[in-house]
Amino acid sequence: MMAANAKYTNVQFTNSSDQILKQNAVTIWDGPLGSVVPLVIGLGSPVEFNQVGSLVGFECKFGETYCTLIVAWSNNGVSNKVYAQILPAGPGTHTVEWAQIRAKLEKSGSICDTGNQFGYKCTLEIDPKSVTPTMKGTFTTVK
Q1: Cβ neighbours for 18, distance < 8 A, ≥ 6 positions apart
Q2: Ordered DSSP codes for 19-59
Q3: Does the model's pTM come out above 0.85?
Q4: Residues 110, 125: contact at Cβ < 8 Å?
Q5: What is the distance between the alpha carbons of residues 78 and 67, in angstroms, rounded to a whole number?
Q6: By C-alpha distance, which of 31, 69, 68 is closest to 50?
Q7: How far apart are CA 1 and CA 72, in angstroms?
Q8: In degrees, to the nearest 5, what angle opens at C-alpha 83 toward C-alphas 79 and 87?
Q9: Which residues contact 98 (CB under 8 A, 6 or more apart)?
Q10: pLDDT at 103 over 90
Q11: In terms of Cα–Cα distance, which of 61, 46, 41 is closest to 14?
Q12: Gyration radius (Cα) of the chain, Å
């Protein structure tokens, strides 16, 4: 059960791609430790969860070569923001730099669209001013 004053974000994420997403890491910069990000985000059906913390990011691997999807958001109730990035696969070539992700998140807005990155696309949108916002995201294959 969440504390009455805990900041959280309702995340609604749909994987419409041709790949299963497997959680690799969760970073909570501001908030209590403890992730409710699913370990696997399957194809088709949306997943929904309430993640406590006002500054959170997660990383998923996908595909035979293990590309990386990064999703991050901030929830300060004044100017909520989202950021997403897709990294190519490669042995040891693409380590997620969480400090850089946080810096990019701070410069972003309430809507993010990665565009086509390596044949995939992620779109995110968060209520820009709610203290308990909903973030909606979709991950798709670009054809």
Answers
A1: 43, 141
A2: S-EEEEEEEEEES-S-----SEE-SSS-EEEEEE-SEEEEE
A3: yes
A4: yes
A5: 33
A6: 31
A7: 23
A8: 170
A9: 27, 57
A10: yes
A11: 46
A12: 14
Kindly state the tokens that stand for 113: 């669209």
Nearest to 127 by CA among 48, 27, 26, 9: 9
- Token pair 């999807």: residue: 69
| CATH class, range 8-141 | mainly beta
Q: Is 103 left (phi over 0), alpha (psi -120 to 50) or beta?
A: alpha
Q: For tokens 């004053």, what's the residue?
A: 5
pLDDT at residue 94 above 80? no
Pure H helices in the chain:
98-106
Domain ranges of the chain: 8-141
Mean pLDDT of the chain: 91
pLDDT in tens, 119-139: 999 999 999 999 999 999 999
pLDDT higher than 60, residue 1:
no
Sign (positive/negative) of CA torsion 15, 102, 34, 89? Answer: positive
Is the distance from CB of 44 to CB of 15 less than 8 angstroms? yes
